[in-house]
Each structure stands twice: as structure tokens, then as C-alpha cells.
Automatic annotation (TrEMBL):
It is a multi-pass membrane protein. Na(+)/H(+) antiporter that extrudes sodium in exchange for external protons. The keyword Transcription regulation does not apply. One of its GO terms (biological process) is sodium ion transport. The lineage of its organism: Bacteria, Pseudomonadati, Pseudomonadota, Gammaproteobacteria, Enterobacterales. GO terms for cellular component: plasma membrane. It comes from Escherichia albertii (strain TW07627). Belongs to the monovalent cation:proton antiporter 1 (CPA1) transporter (TC 2.A.36) family. This is Na+/H+ antiporter. InterPro entries: Cation/H_exchanger_CPA1, Cation/H_exchanger_CPA1_bac, Cation/H_exchanger_TM. The chain crosses the membrane at residues 53-76, 125-147, 153-172, 209-227, 248-266, 281-305, 326-353, 365-388. It is found in: Cell inner membrane; Cell membrane. Keywords: Antiport, Cell inner membrane, Cell membrane, Ion transport, Membrane, Sodium, Sodium transport, Transmembrane, Transmembrane helix, Transport. Residues 1-389 form the Cation/H+ exchanger transmembrane domain.
Length: 517
């Protein structure tokens, strides 16, 4: 939808033109989006599926660059071999954000989506590094060798991950310093958190390693380092809501910008094709379909090969692919849509070579990349809903079981903590709390916790009880809010008091609504 709106706004009828700077685009939009994806990625599942993810994000990228690169060189007139490799490299990254946008959150089975998200996190870096190599060879600033490229890639990848880890660690130290000396001011802490992906990306790029992997590593480190767990409550609450809003806005702007570029790309490419004797306009559209079909065949063939390899040689510890059906392999194949990274990468190809000549077939590279992006999204919109029909997306009974186990375990720990606190307060002569009041309050709290820890209740009755209690609490909160507005209207309380009490009610209501989702 955003792509269509952007294209409509940039069409000559409206004439909205936004200058697209690929480097600025990569700096402003990609780091926070990848940081957010890394933050949300379950580290344990990511490591468990490490073989599958790196099989797609690294090995498949190499196969795609080599195979599709030679295909483009042989089939598309006027594109030399090295620029063909550059186009294949920029077409290799997949886009999990675009995928979620066309099928919706939670529509693809979890076992497939987890691998696809991990692949999208990693193959952005491998694809852009491959593009960097191809452009450097075309510009004459690098002599390509397999050994040299491998060493350079390892340096860029490992260095990027280490840079993200170090910057995230420094952020954690600075957060503790601010909390100690400046108080728990959430606004400052959230601003620092927002700057973290940009700092990771820019520092990594400055020292010559992968800024994309640095942003991903920083996001994943935040979840494992305990920084957010030790952060003040106000900061955690605001950080989650702020990042959700920013992620939504940035995702929309990425595809809006993509749409804004399409009319200009189409006009420039068609004008260049008219004066190029080696190219016919209708062949450009045919080449888009051919390249996309080849990408899907390579992806499907690689997934099928990994399935057979796992079942044949990894019987003791097979990969997840070993249990996939043909339908699931097709879902994973068509889910490999292309998006913003591909567009930013192809537009980053320089206009001129060092000797002043035009970069070979650049307009064809841009046109074909933009066409493959749109065609992959179109095919995904058409094919994925068909393939996903009648597929069980999530095992809700398993999730309910896990929730019940977790609630019971946390309730038992909470009861022990309350009992210890009761004993400490009873022995504390300075606080001088009445023992009867102390026993009454602790018994009431422990009684509520006991109901959560009681495993004898069946799932249905527990859910019914929780939902009923939540409805009563929400009704009470909403009536309290109405009364606060009445008290402010009658000038019994000030506006400052109203805002403070409304904020407290909003937090409680948000918690109750979040539990119900």
C-alpha cells in the first residue's frame, strides 16, 4: 500500500520528487530497523537454528551471486560480467519486514518464520559485502581472489559483530552511570537507546567492518546483557512503546520512499533504453520475470538440497529442513521477497568509473532490481495466502501450558519473598508495624498468589477467572477516569493532579489490555 501511495505521489500528475541518497537512507532507516529486529529475535532459537540460518544467509547468497550473476551475463544484453555479479549480489538479501507486511504477523508457521527472520538479519550483510566486492572490482580498486574475498568477508563480519557487542556494552555502563549520578530520568535514557543502533552502525563503518551486523549484534546483545532488565521501570515501559511506534513509522517510510523512486527509475531507464542499441524495452520486462524465476528456482533447489543432505548425512542431529514438506519449502521460497536493502544497494552503485566513463549498464541494473522487488512482492501477495491455507500457525495449547507453568513458578517464588519480608518487618522495631495488620495484608497477597500457583485448576476455568477479573478491573479503571475528569471540571483537583492520576490509570489499563492480547 505504501509503495502504491509513494508511486502515485511521484507520478507526473502530482509531481512530488524526493531526492534519494542511498548512503543517507542506509544510515537513517536500516540501523534502527535491524536493531529492533535483533532486539526481538529470541537468541536461544537463533542459535538453535544457526546451521539453517547461515546455510541460507551465507551459502545461499554465494550460490545466488555466482549462479544468477552468470545467468544475467548470458541472458541480458549489454551487462558485463562484473556488473552482473553486482546485480546478483544486491538481489540476494531477503526482507522479513516486507514479508510481514504482505502476509501479516503470525501467519507463517513459527518454525519457518524464525529461520526466515534470522536469514534476513544476516544476509543483508553478506549481500552488501558481495556488492561492495563487485563494485570495487568494476571500479578497478580491487583485484578479486577467492582467498582474499573470504578473508575480507570474515574480517568485516566478525568485526561488525564485535563492534555491536562493544558499543552495546558501553551503553549499559553509561546507563548505570546516569542512573547513579543523574537519577532515573527516562527521557535521557530512551534517547541514548535510540542512538545506540546509529552509534553501532557508524562506528563499525568508520573502522571498516559491517555496520549492518553491528546494529543487529547491538540489538541482540541488549536482550542478553540484562541492560533492560536492570533499567528503571519508567524507562522500560516508555522504551517498548517508543520503539514500537518508531518501527511502525520507519517501516512505512521505507516503502513510501521506495514508491517515490519508481516513476523516476522507470522514466530514466526507458529513456536510456531507447538510445541503447543493445537493449529493447520489452526485453527489460521479460528479463525481470526471468531473473525472479531463476531466484526462486535457486532458492527452492537449495532448500530441497539442504533437506536431502540433512536426512542423509545428519541423522543424529538433523536440521529443521529435514522435516519440512514440499509445501513448506514452497512457502519459504516465495517468502524470500526483496525490499528496501535491495533498492538502497543498487542505487548506491556509482554513476561514474574513476576514469570518468559511465558505470557499465547502471540504468539496467537499477531498473531490473526495482522490477524484481515489485514482482517478488506481487507474487508473494498472490502465492503465500494460497500456500498458507489450512496451515496451523501456532500451538496455542502449548503456549497456554507454558504460561501456566511460568505463572505457577513465579507465584511460588513471590510467596517465599513475601514470607521473608513479613518476618523481617515483624522483627524491625523501627518501623513498628502492627502485627495483626502485617499478617492481614501478607495473607491477602499470598492468597492471591496461591490461586495462581495452584495447579489443580484446569486451563479453561483459569482463563475464565482471569478474564472475569480483568473485565471487573477495566470497568473500575474507566469509571475512575470518568470521575477524575468530573473532579477537574468542578475544580476540585488541579490539572497537574489530573495528569498524574490519569497517567497511573493508563499504565494499569495498558497492563490489563496487554495481558488480554
Amino acid at each position: 500500500m505504501q509503495i502504491a501511495i509513494g508511486a502515485l505521489l511521484a507520478w507526473p500528475t502530482f509531481g512530488l520528487h524526493v531526492e534519494f541518497d542511498p548512503e543517507l537512507f542506509l544510515v537513517l532507516f536500516i540501523p534502527p530497523l535491524l536493531f529492533a529486529d535483533g532486539w526481538k529475535t529470541p537468541t536461544r532459537e537463533f542459535l538453535e537454528h544457526g546451521r539453517e540460518i547461515f546455510g541460507l544467509a551465507l551459502a545461499l547468497v554465494v550460490v545466488t551471486v555466482v549462479g544468477i550473476g552468470f545467468l544475467i551475463y548470458w541472458v541480458v544484453p549489454g551487462i558485463p560480467l562484473v556488473p552482473a555479479f553486482a546485480l546478483a549480489a544486491v538481489l540476494s538479501p531477503t526482507d522479513a519486514v516486507a514479508l510481514s507486511g504482505i502476509v501479516g504477523e503470525g501467519r507463517i508457521p513459527k518454525k519457518i518464520m524464525g529461520i526466515l527472520q534470522g536469514e534476513a538479519l544476516m544476509n543483508d550483510a553478506s549481500g552488501l559485502v558481495s556488492l561492495k566486492f563487485a563494485v570495487a572490482v568494476a571500479m578497478g580498486t580491487m583485484i578479486f581472489t577467492v582467498g582474499g574475498a573470504t578473508v575480507e568477508f570474515m574480517k568485516v563480519a566478525i568485526g561488525g559483530i564485535l563492534a555491536g557487542f562493544v558499543v552495546s556494552w558501553l551503553y549499559g555502563r553509561s546507563l548505570r552511570f546516569l542512573s547513579r549520578w543523574g537519577g532515573d530520568e527516562p527521557a535521557t535514557q530512551i534517547v541514548l537507546l535510540f542512538l545506540l543502533p546509529f552509534a553501532s552502525y557508524l562506528i563499525a563503518e568508520h573502522i571498516g567492518v559491517s555496520g549492518i551486523l553491528a546494529a543487529v549484534a547491538a540489538g541482540m546483545t541488549i536482550t542478553r546483557s540484562g541492560v533492560m532488565r536492570r533499567a528503571p521501570l519508567a524507562m522500560r515501559l516508555r522504551a517498548n512503546s517508543t520503539w514500537s511506534m518508531l518501527e511502525f513509522v520507519f517501516n512505512g517510510m521505507v516503502f513510501l520512499l521506495l514508491g517515490l523512486q519508481l516513476p523516476g527509475i522507470l522514466e530514466t531507464s526507458l529513456m536510456a533504453a531507447e538510445i541503447d542499441p543493445n537493449v529493447e524495452i520489452w526485453m527489460l520486462f521479460t528479463d525481470i520475470i526471468l531473473i525472479y524465476a531463476a531466484l526462486m528456482l535457486v532458492r527452492f533447489g537449495w532448500l530441497w538440497t539442504m533437506k536431502k543432505f540433512s536426512n542423509r548425512f545428519l541423522k543424529r542431529k538433523p536440521m529443521e529442513f529435514g522435516s519440512w514438506t514440499t509445501r513448506e519449502i514452497l512457502i519459504a521460497s516465495f517468502a524470500g521477497v526483496r525490499g528496501a536493502i535491495t533498492l538502497a544497494g543498487v542505487l548506491s552503485i556509482p554513476l561514474l568509473l574513476p576514469d570518468g566513463n559511465v558505470f557499465p549498464a547502471r540504468y539496467e541494473l537499477v531498473f531490473l532490481a526495482a522490477g524484481v522487488i515489485l514482482f517478488s512482492l506481487f507474487v508473494g501477495v498472490v502465492m503465500l495466502p494460497v500456500l498458507l491455507q489450512h496451515i496451523e500457525v501456532a500451538d496455542h495449547s502449548q503456549q497456554l501450558k507454558e504460561e501456566r507453568i511460568a505463572r505457577a513458578a513465579t507465584a511460588e517464588v513471590a510467596i517465599v519473598a513475601i514470607q521473608k519480608m513479613e518476618e523481617r518487618l515483624a522483627a524491625d522495631t523501627e518501623e513498628n508495624i502492627d502485627n495483626q495488620l502485617l499478617t492481614e495484608v501478607s495473607s491477602r497477597v499470598i492468597g492471591n498468589l496461591r490461586r495462581r500457583a495452584d495447579g489443580r485448576n484446569d486451563v479453561e476455568s483459569s482463563i475464565l477467572e482471569e478474564n472475569l477479573e480483568r473485565r471487573f478491573r477495566l470497568a473500575a479503571l474507566r469509571s475512575e477516569r470518568a470521575e477524575l475528569y468530573h473532579l477537574r471540571a468542578t475544580r476540585e483537583i488541579s490539572n497537574e493532579t489530573l495528569q498524574k492520576l490519569l497517567h497511573d490509570l493508563d499504565l494499569l489499563e495498558a497492563l490489563l489490555i496487554e495481558e488480554n492480547q
